Amino acid sequence: MVAAILYGLLALWATASPLQETRPTQERGKTEEKQDQKKHDQKQAEQTGNTDKPLDESDAAARALKRLLEGKTHGPEAKPPQNKPKPAQGGEQKTTPPGPGKQEAGKQKPGEQQAGKQSGGNPPGRNNTEKVSEPDAAAGALQKLLGQQKKPNNKINGNTQKAKPPDNVKLKPIEQNQPQDQSEEAARALEEQPVHDETKLQPQEAIPVHGSASLWYRLRKSDQDRAEDLRGLLGVDIGNAEKDPVTVHLLGRGSVDIGSRGPDNIFNGIDQTYGKRLTGRLYDAYADIHAAEPFEIARLGRQTNYDTPEVLYFDGARLESKRTGELQFWYGGYVGVPTRLFESSPQGKFTGGLEAGFEPLHGTRLRFDWMHVDDEVMFGPDKNDLLGVALWQNVTEHADVHARYTWLENKNRDLLVRGNGSIVDWDMDVHLSYYQLLETQGAYAIEFDPFYEQAFEYHPYQQLTASFNKRFASSVQVDGGVDVRRLVDPADEGQFNREFERVFLSTQFLDLPTDILRLTLTGEYFNTHGAEDTSALEADLTALPRKGLELSAGTSYALYKYDSFTQRERDHVRTYYATGQYEVSKDLRFRLSYVFETDPFDDYHTLVARILWTF
Fold first, then answer.
1. How far apart are CA 45 and CA 428, in angstroms?
2. What is the pTM of this model?
3. Is 266 left (phi over 0), alpha (psi -120 to 50) or beta?
4. What stretch of H or E contains 37?
5. pLDDT (tens digit, 9 = 90+) per residue, 382-427?
6. Does residue 186 contact residue 590 with C-beta atoms inside 8 Å?
7. Residue 17: what are its φ and ψ, rounded to 5°?
8. Residues of 122-138 as b/e, b for ≥16 C-beta within 10 angstroms?
9. Element holding 46 (H helix, E strand)
């Protein structure tokens, strides 16, 4: 059938010649109309050379399409009228000379008969039993051909593609409310014929990439030393966890020293031990596989597991199943190498573990952990195992309790109990926490005792913390609390492990005097054994002078503060700070801060300028 249509189009282009569009203007009877039709048939037969051969469907379709494109769809060729048509009886009939490529719809009143065939039906006086003319037969054949080809509903991108005629051929537009003969209907069917277009494929949705990039300059200065460095932090998330089978997360940092610093500079850190100015760190690099049934988490790469009794940072694989059944049972495990950013080789290191949990009662959750770490430390190889059990219980709608107990190397290690509650009628929240170290911490793997090389043995102690926050009206909030720390054996007190009591009360004024100012005042009282009691006042003032701009300044106090550069404990440290942050847009922010720290032995200045861009 397609070959028949192509044959008809080729025959059309080979024989097409411009014809002047005419329209009969006088009424003709049935006899004259049949004679004209006969002459037309003879003329068409002479042009094709098939005077004796009846028209097949392809020839008829080609001729019907040819007459349509030439504007000759209403009968045999006729000469243009020489005189202006006269109005017919019974009313005036208006005619307008047809323009190029435009066919005019005739108007007639009841009782009048328009010359020529009536579009879309039989001419006046012709009954349905009379012989159908060649144009109508050809149009019917064309429609039949197109009907067979049009069965498949081929669509690309949801839209039907229409076939277009050659550029040098113009179809006559069909005016609204104008009757159409069968040849015109057949041509329109051809125009709407769906066409396969394999080149127009639906474009793939781009993989989303989000993250943040920050760049900051830092200047640190003391009375004796000075250090400058430039740092950059980049975090990237690739993919959509709800749509893509795999997503990727990356986080890294680069640092370069600016200026010169001596080997005894107080601000020298681990980066300065590499003997080069430029250093880099890869913090996270993992892929999440979301199509790994029946697992909720399937992660591979450098990652951090915050759900274990001790935070585990490692390179490896982790699996955690989905919750199933009435008890919401789940299980999981991990295996890999502990990540040590400042160690040159992972040799002799290994970590692995199992985890599981379920919900025995409504509002009750239980979790069980086994952690294993192999670590070659300065005192020889250590293989440590830690067991943990944790409980979460919803006491009421506004109160919950959490408890955790661990064993290290078959010895009791520590106990943690924590509770949170809200008193809705008072608009107040209450928090309680109790922690007890049960055994002296010694030379274990860094994951279980990260400070042994600095603090050596850490002796058992107990610490109780209670705090609350209360909101008054909508502009005042009060926070307060108490910390009590006691050693199991008071004789074990030393650096990094002391007994003390601390009481604090903080008041925040959110609208002072307008909503662009916020003031926070905090008072603290310290009671330490073997030292004088200490009281301190802290303050913070924040201003929002315009949209996107935030300015703040304040002061704070710390009775004991650990100095990571000198690896010593500083006491009675007073800090003053001022910061300014401007949000240019939701994706770009600038931040400038200055911090001054002073203690009985030295003063420190730190200036940081930072740019943060999110994408």
1. 101
2. 0.64
3. alpha
4. helix 30-48
5. 789 999 999 999 999 999 999 999 999 989 999 999 999 999 999 9
6. no
7. -145, 145
8. ebbebeeeeeebbbbbb
9. helix 30-48
For residue 480, list its beta bridge partners: 468, 505
In three-state form (DSSP H/G/I as H, E/B as E, the rest C), the secondary structure along 568-606 is: EEEEEEEEEEEEEEEEEECCEEEEEEEEEEECCCCEEEE
Single-letter amino acid code for the residue at 99: G
How many C-beta atoms surround the C-beta of residue 60 within 10 A?
24
Q: Show the tokens assigned to 191.
A: 């125009």
In whole angstroms, give the CA distance from residue 615 to residue 613. Answer: 7
List alpha helices for 108-266, DSSP H: 134-149, 182-191
pLDDT of residue 97: 43
Kindly state the tokens that stand for 311. Answer: 């935070």
Residue 593 has pLDDT above 70, yes or no: yes
Please tell me whether the peptide bond between 513 and the residue prior to it is cis, using omega within 30 degrees of 0: yes
Q: Note whether 354 and 370 are within 8 A (CB).
A: yes
Q: Is 475 left (phi over 0), alpha (psi -120 to 50) or beta?
A: alpha
Amino acid at 204: Q
Both structure tokens of 589: 């922010």
- Please report, as a single letter, which amino acid is at residue 391: L
What percent of the chain has pLDDT above 70? Answer: 64
The whole-angstrom separation of Cα 481 and Cα 506 is 9
Smallest CA-to-CA distance from 75 within 111, 28, 108 is with 28
Residue 188 banded pLDDT, cuts 50, 70, 90 = low
Report the candidate in 332, 337, 331 with the shortest Cα–Cα distance to residue 301.
337
Residue with tokens 């550029």: 167
What does the alpha-carbon distance between residue 501 and residue 484 come to, in Å, rounded to a whole number? 5
- Using CA atoms in the order 286, 359, 310, 348, what is the torsion angle rounded to 10 degrees? -60
CA dist 373 and 386 (Å) reads 9
